[in-house]
Amino acid sequence: MAIVGIDKLSLLDYEDKVSVVLFSQACNMRCPFCHNGAAILGASKEDELDFNEILEFLKTRKGLIDAVVFTGGEPTMEPDLKVKIKAVRDLGFLIKLDTNGTNPEIVESLLDEGLIDYVAMDIKNCPNLYAETCGLKFINVENIKKSISIIMAKAPDYEFRTTLVKEFHERMDYEAFLNLIKGAKKLFLQKFVDRDGCIQKGLHEVSIEEANKLRDYLATGILEVTLRGY
Questions:
Q1: Are the C-beta atoms of 191 and 203 separated by less than 8 Å?
Q2: Taking the domains of the chain in order of start, what are their residue ranges?
């Protein structure tokens, strides 16, 4: 697993926990609004961090942090993800996985082996706009649906989250989006912020009024829908 970034102290990435965040390089999406886009796409072999050094650092943080977050990029693309998660878990830390849901079998395997305590999955858009929102010409939405079902059925705790971008979500089919995750316990609707690291420049946030309208609609089929960043 090529780890190309580390946040040594985060209070935001794992709800109610102090965490260290590890950023993997591989990604099979090119979301125009991704804040990690420049770092991930521009990373080279020379940027890869030594995992043994990361483990040694984590040993010094026992009792100071609660969890380690594997994010990206897309961690499930990394062939040795399970090995690295096991190594971190053996140190006694909780594990959170951030995923885009394109590799449901890997997510299921990690959950079946009890290696993941919390999963956060990005739900990009309603099905007919999914590929466009991911910066792709095609995406297998069935894999997305499988991951959603697996997470809802097997994850000890989880959240879904959607970053609201005017250019992609003002055309969103609310009903079709809700049908993807109907019955879920938690969805965060995140405010987009145009930062230097974004792949595409000049995108815009969804207004608070529209975000509230969407939240109210989705709350008819999801237990908890919360705005994040507004």
A1: no
A2: 3-228
Residues 69 and 53: their CA atoms lie apart, in Å, by 17
pTM for the complete prediction?
Answer: 0.94
CATH homologous superfamily of domain 3-228?
Aldolase class I (3.20.20.70)
- Strands 158-164, 187-191: pairing is parallel
Q: How confident is the prediction along the chain (230 residues), in pLDDT tens digits per residue? A: 689 889 999 999 998 999 999 999 889 999 999 987 666 666 666 678 999 999 999 999 999 999 999 998 899 999 999 999 999 999 999 999 999 999 999 999 999 999 999 999 999 999 999 999 999 999 999 999 999 999 999 999 999 999 999 999 999 999 999 999 999 999 999 999 998 878 888 999 999 999 999 999 999 999 999 999 99
Neighbours of 69 (CB within 10 A): 24
**How are the residues of the chain apportioned to helix, strand and coil, as percentages rounded to the nearest 5?**
35, 20, 40
DSSP string across 82-132 = HHHHHHHHTTT-EEEEEE-SS-HHHHHHHHHTT--SEEEEE--S-GGGHHH
